[in-house]
Predict the structure.
Amino acid sequence: MPEAAEASGDPGSKTAALRAAIVASGIVVESSDDLDGARGTSAGGRIQILNGLSPAEELVVLAHEWAHELLHRADDRPASRDTRELEAEAVAFVIGEAVGLEVSQASKDYLHLYHGDREALTQSLDRIQRASSVILTAVSTAG
């Protein structure tokens, strides 16, 4: 079975800035050697990230998990897991691209896993934009 594509490139200090911004927002960030096949998890005020990720992968995984925290912990949380994953990954794509990483193939692969298409993205565009704006602002002011 082919391996999924991963984000690549050099985020410089942006990964550390993103981590610091997440912590400053009141969310605990922990590292783990095993997340049952996941690269990151989010559980209401706590993000876990897999040890050993490249700086580029760490940045996009942190952005993805923070997007879950921003978008999927309130009453307006989408019922569909596919929609939640699509939104979080679209935010990670925006953040990765904004800091100069190559994320398009990795995001495309992930979105296909969760039935991401033009219609689904269009329906979530406002939510994706809102979370992306929060994260980009935090990264640019923190780093």
Observations:
- The helical segments are 14-24, 55-71, 81-98, 104-113, 118-142.
- The chain has one domain: 14-142.
